[in-house]
Amino acid sequence: MTYGIIYQLTYNKDSSIYYIDAVINKDINIIWKTYQDNYKKYLNNELKEQNILYLYFKVFGINNFIITKLKEFIILDKIHLKAYHLLYINKFKPINNI
């Protein structure tokens, strides 16, 4: 069975600043560790991809964000998970919806 997870990264001093994303079959702690590692690479110009979240980490401090699992779904494939992801983005209007 394949599981999709919708999760949220929230600035702990202002809950109106949050980011929603989705992933297949990963533990929430591994997701957070990946963000931390990629942010370090971003700061050292070792990461080609840009993520709006890194700008927020830079301004507010990565340690001021918390990760929360919003929902776990049984999914058929990545497209199925993407549909759930877009549903959450459209419903909650996080920073990755600007």
Overview of this protein structure:
The chain has helices at residues 28-43, 52-60, 78-92, and strands spanning 2-11, 18-24, 65-75. Strands 2-1-3 form a three-stranded antiparallel sheet, sandwiched between helices. The N and C termini lie far apart (33 Å). The protein has 98 residues and is α+β, with helices and mostly antiparallel strands. The radius of gyration is 14 Å and the shape is globular. The model has no long low-confidence stretch (mean pLDDT 93). Helix content is 41%, strand content 29%.
Give the structure's gist in a few sentences:
This protein has helices at 28-43, 52-60, 78-92; strands at 2-11, 18-24, 65-75.
Sequence of strands across the biggest β-sheet: 2-1-3
Computed structural class: alpha+beta
Helix content: 40-55%
Total strand count, please? 3
Topology:
Layout: E1 2-11, E2 18-24, H1 28-43, H2 52-60, E3 65-75, H3 78-92
Question: Which terms summarize this structure?
Answer:
98 residues; alpha+beta; globular
